[in-house]
Amino acid sequence: MENVGVYRFCGCAAKSKVKCDSRWEIPASETAPTSAYSSPARSLGDTGITPLSPSHIVNDADPNVSEQQTFLVVVAVDFGTTSSGYAYSFTKEPECIHVMRRWEGGDPGVSNQKTPTTILLTPERKFHSFGYAARDFYHDLDPNEAKQWLYLEKFKMKLHTTGDLTMDTDLTAANGKKVKALEIFAYALQYFKEQALKELSDQAGSEFENSDVRWVITVPAIWKQPAKQFMRQAAYQAGLASPDNSEQLIIALEPEAASIYCRKLRLHQMIELSSKAAVNGYSSSDTVGAGFAQAKEHIRRNRQSRTFLVENVIGEIWSELEEGDKYVVVDSGGGTVDLTVHQIRLPEGHLKELYKATGGPYGSLGVDYEFEKLLCKIFGEDFIEQFKIKRPAAWVDLMIAFESRKRAAAPDRTNPLNITLPFSFIDYYKKFRGHSVEHALRKSNVDFVKWSSQGMLRMSPDAMNALFKPTIDSIIEHLRDLFQKPEVSTVKFLFLVGGFAEAPLLQQAVQAAFGDKCRIIIPQDVGLTILKGAVLFGLDPAVIKVRRSPLTYGVGVLNRYVEGKHPPEKLLVKDGTRWCTDVFDKFISADQSVALGELVKRSYTPAKPSQLVIVINIYSSEHDDVSFITDPGVKKCGTLRLDLTGTSGTAVPPRREIQTLMQFGDTEIKATAIDIATSKSVKVGIDFLNY
C-alpha cells in the first residue's frame, strides 16, 4: 500500500507537514487539542525547517514548450449547446482555415454548416448517431419504439448548471432514462474525431494518424475548472489525447477564440450596426435586418468554398486602432452569453484581458423555454410534461418547427408566424383533455396566439418578440453592468458573435443600448467565428498574453499567532509555540492580472522521507479579501497531488523539499514540481472533479 500523507491545510489530522510562505502544516498527534469546529491541523511537529517564501516568477513562455511535439494539423471542435462543428488548418498553411464538410440533412431556412448537438443511443445504450442523422432517425422511429431509444440534445448546459459536477454526473434522455454525462460527451467527441480524421485522410490520400493532430475544444469562458476538467476527461476517453500527452489537447475559451479571429477581419468580412461609419457598403440608413440579410446572401453564394483565408498579420479593422485600445466581445450562443474585454498590443496584435470573463445562462435556449412556458399556459403544464414523456419524438419535431420560425423573428416584421403542431400533439391532447387544441386556445385567454385550420399555431410578431424579451433583457442588463466598470469605460468596438448574434432582435437591442458608446461589429458568418478563432488559437496558443483570474485560489496553512490580529478561536498552542490555524495562503486573487507563463512557487516537505504521496486541498472564493479558509464564501474546490514515487534516488535525504510551480495564466490551471535534492521531476495532478 502506498504511503500517503494527506495535507488538508487546516482540515484533517494528517501525519504530514507542509511549509509554505513561512507557515507549515503540522502532523497530528494523539494528544492534540480538539475544538468544536473542524480544523485540520491541530498539533505541531518539528519546527526546525526553514520555510521558503513564496514567489512569482515571470517567464515569457510556457516552460514545457521545448518538449512539445510538432503537429501537422490543428483541428478545432466547437462543441456548442445547440449546434457543433469542426474546422482545421495545416500548420504549414496557417492562413487557410478549412471548415468541415457539409452535413447531411438540415432544416428549411437554417444554415447547416454546423450540425445539431444531438446524440442517439440504441436501447442497449450503444452509440448510434450524432447531429442531423440522430435527429432524423429518431424522428422516423415508431412512437412506441422511440421510447426505448436514448435521445439527448442541448446537454452541454448540464456542465454549467451542475454545482457539484463529478465524473458520475447523469444526463436525462428524452425518454426520461438516465445516462452518464461523461459517456455522452466522449461519444460526441469521438464522433468528431472520426469525422475529422476521415476527411483529413481523404484529403491527404493516405491514412491520417491521430498523433499528427493538435486538438482544440471550445468551452464558455464562464465555465469553472471542474467543467473544463470534465471536458478534458471526456476527450481522453474519446481518444483525442491522453494524460501522458496532455499537450495534444488545448481548451479554448469561446469569446477568446472569437476575439482572436476578429483581429484578422477585413472590411468586407463584417457588418457594422452603429451609425458612426459605414462598413461593407452599408450606410447608417440601412436597417439592421436588411444589412444582415445581404451579408447572409453573400455567404450563401460563397458557401461551396469551405476554405477561409485569414490575414497573416492583423486585419484592416485594426488600422483604426492604437496601442492600448480596448474592445468587448459578446459571445451569444445557444446556452450561455460570455463577455470578455481585451486590449490590443501592437504591432504583433497580442491580446491582454482587462476584466475577468463574465456572463450567464442567457443563450437562445431562453427563448425556447419561454415558448414552452407559453404552451404550458395554453395547454396546461401537466399535459406538456406528459406529452414530452409519452411522445418524445413529436416534442422534438415541435421544437424544430419553432426553431425555424424563431429565426424569422425581426423587429420590423408585420405578418404572423405559423408553427406547425405535430399530428400526435393534436391527437394526444384530445385523448388527454377530451376536447380539441382549438378549444384550448379559445379558452386560454392568450389573444396573440390563434389556431390556423391548417393545424398550426399562428403567432403575432409581438407574441414572438415577447418570447425573446426576457433573454435579451438579461444580456443588455449584464452588458450595462460591464460598461460601468472603469476598465470598460473607453471601449472602441463591441463584437457581437455566436449563433444567437444572428437574431435581428438581439442586434437591434444591443445597437439601441450601446451604439452611442462604441462601434458595434458583427463578423460575417457569425456562427463560425468561434470555430475559426479556435483554429487560430491552436496554431498560436500564446496569442493571449495576459488573463484575469476568475477566482481567488489558495490553501489553508498555519501561521504564527499574533495577539489582536488573529481570532482567539484560531489559537493552537503546541510545545510552547502559539499558532493560528486555518490561515488562507493566497496563490492568486480574483480579477488579478496574470501573464502567460507566470508561475506561483511554493515548497512542500513530506513528513517522513519515505512518504510517496502528498495531497493538498485547494480552496477558492469569489472575493479577494480572504483571511481564513473558514471565511464565508470560501470553499474547497480541488486537490493538488504530488506523487513522489521514483524521485528520491538511492540515498533518501533526511529532509526533502518539493518545489511546486503553478500557472494561472492559461485557459486551465496547470502545475509542475521537482524534487530539489535530486532535480527529478515530480508527477503532479490538480483535480477539481474527484476531491
From TrEMBL:
It is found in: Cytoplasm; Nucleus. InterPro entries: ATPase_NBD, HSPA12A_NBD. GO terms for molecular function: ATP binding. The keyword Magnesium does not apply. Its main location: cytoplasm. Signal peptide: none annotated. It comes from the Eukaryota. GO terms for cellular component: cytoplasm; nucleus. Interacts with SORL1 (via cytosolic C-terminus); this interaction affects SORL1 internalization and subcellular localization. This is Heat shock 70 kDa protein 12A. It comes from Puma concolor (Mountain lion).
